Structure formats: structure tokens, C-alpha cells
Amino acid sequence: MAYSHGFLNQLQPWGFLSLCFFIGMYGMNTALLTMHFIYRYIVLCRSNLHPILKRKSSGACCVISVVTWGFFYGFITFYCFCANEDFYRYAGPSVLETLGEDIRNLSFFCVFTYEVILNITIMYWHPTIGLFLIVVMMTTSFSVMVVCAIKMHRTLRKASMSQKSRALQTQLLKALVVQAVVPFLMSYLPRFLMFFFVIMGYPPFK
After folding, report:
1. Where is the G-protein coupled receptors family 1 profile domain (predicted)?
2. Are 30 and 141 in contact (CB under 8 A)?
3. Which helix (DSSP H) or strand (DSSP E) does residue 105 occupy?
4. What are the DSSP E strand ranges found in the chain?
5. pTM to 2 decimals?
6. Secondary structure of residue 54 in the 3-state scheme
7. What angle, rounded to 10 degrees, do the helices at 56-80 and 14-45 form?
């Protein structure tokens, strides 16, 4: 469960929509970084595709792809991670005890995949499918980055170019890798571990 403390918190449904927009922007950032890897890969490794980069339609396609990717992130949050009566019942007492707030007055999204009642596991498929789609999209993005980075590294080792050009391209590749590694370690990996521990039922640290 992630809730908003902002000024839209009490303005339903705008607080929840702002959280969906935030996740959508999160997805757009990932898509933009992936596009950067693809662009550098084409420039460095696929000279036969250089004419495509000069077309105006290429820029439009990139913008549309990034916005669409972010839209799917936001839509999944809106459709799959919205609260329902089961979650209100499940988390309401804890929220009231911890935050002193009625859960229905909060703007939040939740990944409520299952619940165990009397040793019976009840699956909630909307959030489960949504979480699966988010993980697939994240994995796809970073897989493309890794593949492009490996191919660029191999090209730099084998390609015939001046020492100065090789050093410049190597620095650009290192900078691009750092741009991907930092959000992966600081954002994506902690979120993955958070969802993993919650879904597996591990107790919180005290």
C-alpha cells in the first residue's frame, strides 16, 4: 500500500489519480532510458539503420512509444491496484491504529494479491495480474538495456576506430550504464524485494 500525503490526499479521486500519474511517469522514465540505449546501440552498432534516425517519423515514434509505455504503467495502477472492499476490511484496522486515519479517507493504491483466511488462501486476480504485467514490463526494459550494453561493449572492443573515438564512446557507454544502474539499485530492486517479501509472507523487520 502506498498512500499520498499531498494536498490532493483528501480530494477523492484526484489523490488516487495523482498516484496513478506518478507511476505512469515512472514508466515513462524507464522507457526513455531504454530508448536511449537503443539509440546508442543503433548509432554504434547498426550503421545500416542510421538513415532511420534522420527521419522525422522516428522522433514521433519514440515519443509515442514512451508515452504509451507510461500510460500502461498508470492504467495498470488505476485498474488493478485500486482498493476494494476486501482490502478495506483487511487493512482498515491496521491503518486506523497506525495512522489514526479512516482508510476510506486516504488516497492510495495497493497490491493486494492474496489473503489467508482459516488456512485457506484466497487469490485476488486483478492485482496479481497487474503485478505480473508490471514485472514483465520492468524485466523487458532492463533486458533490452543489458542486451544493448553488451553488444555496444563488444563492438567497442572489435571495431576499427581511433583511440580518441573509442575512449569517447566508452565514456558515453559507462555514463549510460550508470544512468541505468542507479535507478535499478535505488528504486526497482527495493520495490521488487518489498513486493517479494510481502507476497511470500515474511514478517516485517522490527
Report:
1. 32-206
2. yes
3. none
4. 2-3, 108-109, 114-117, 120-123
5. 0.78
6. coil
7. 140
- Three-class secondary structure of residue 6 per DSSP: coil
Residue carrying the nine cell digits 511470500 = 200
What does the alpha-carbon distance between residue 145 and residue 29 come to, in Å, rounded to a whole number? 13
Residues 2 and 109 sit within 8 Å (Cβ to Cβ): yes
For residue 126, what is the DSSP state?
Answer: H
Q: What is the pLDDT of residues 161-173, one digit of tens each?
A: 777 888 888 888 8
Q: What is the pLDDT of residues 83-102, one digit of tens each?
A: 888 888 878 888 888 777 77
Q: 12-37: b or e for each residue (b if 16 or more CB lie within 10 Å)?
A: eebbbbbbbbbbbebbbbbbebbbbb
Number of residues assigned to the chain: 206
Q: Please, which residues have CB within 8 angstroms of residue 15's CB and are 6 or more apart in sequence?
A: 4, 6, 8, 9, 106, 107
Amino acid at 175: A
